[in-house]
Design brief:
Layout lengths: L3 H4 L5 E6 L2 E6 L14 E7 L9 E6 L22 H6 L7 E3 L8
Length: 108
């Protein structure tokens, strides 16, 4: 029998396959599961288990700031428009969100 906690998680957890690698993206705020207002600015943590990742990445997600759109004059493949695959995966849930890596060099 499946535990109720596995069917209804207490914290937000996403199993990801980004660029062919499996990883975990999770939050520590249970309000993300039930209160859409908490989706304004929030924190997520990312762990891939890969050798190049020495610690869990702490990401700050802002769903109302769109500073990445300011460089529209550049083409979609220019260096100013390229984003890590993880950021693009996050934007499948929160379209247009900005992702701050908080001092960690973006990977993926």
């Amino acid at each position: 029998q499946v535990s109720p906690a596995l069917r209804t998680p207490r914290l937000p957890v996403w199993l990801c396959s980004v660029s062919g690698r499996h990883s975990v993206l999770f939050g520590t705020d249970s309000r993300l599961l039930s209160d859409w207002k908490s989706e304004r600015i929030f924190h997520l943590y990312f762990y891939s288990g890969q050798r190049e990742q020495t610690r869990t990445a702490h990401l700050t997600i802002d769903t109302h700031s769109h500073d990445w759109e300011e460089a529209r004059r550049e083409g979609p493949c220019s260096p100013g428009q390229r984003r890590p695959a993880l950021e693009m995966a996050i934007r499948t849930r929160w379209a247009g969100a900005t992702v701050s890596w908080n001092g960690t060099d973006p990977f993926f």
